[in-house]
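seq:
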Amino acid sequence: MTALFSTLKPQVPDTLAPADRWQQHGVCRSEDPALFFPDGTTGHWLAQVEEAKAVCHRCPVRETCLQEALDRAEPAGIWGGLTEPERARIRRRRYRRPSPVKAPRTAQERAREAYDTHTVDVGGGHREWRGGPIRIDGVMHSEKQATWVAIRGERPTGALITQCGHKGCVTPAHQSQTRSTNGRKAA
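struct:
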């Protein structure tokens, strides 16, 4: 029994194969290399480009070939079925910096912008709203409510009253609200 084990040799997989071993399986190995390096990609060179791409499209290692060319920024030739200009577009999209993400504006910031846009100074320390109600976070707000949100950053919980007596005034200092208890206005 010892003799049997001593004659068997374990078969260990080759895990240290060269990284470019995939190239051994490329269909292009049986083609003229010049086919994959035309002197242009337009005009009369287009037929050669299309012929090279047709070879690539039937190749079992096409995706690996393309990835290698993208990683190395291969400057010339048809690799993985794409020309250099086509690969350059992919690289630009892949490595483009994302646009900076703007923090969402708060309801107060949006209301303040509306207040600044829709109000006019009518003299005597009064401001009037020009235009109708506005929508903030999906909820319609009257001129007074929008002003309240713009200045205080929260929706009013009671009825809003203009204290100055000037009809239509939305000056923040001239606004107050009645108290609200359980959804009912208190006097």
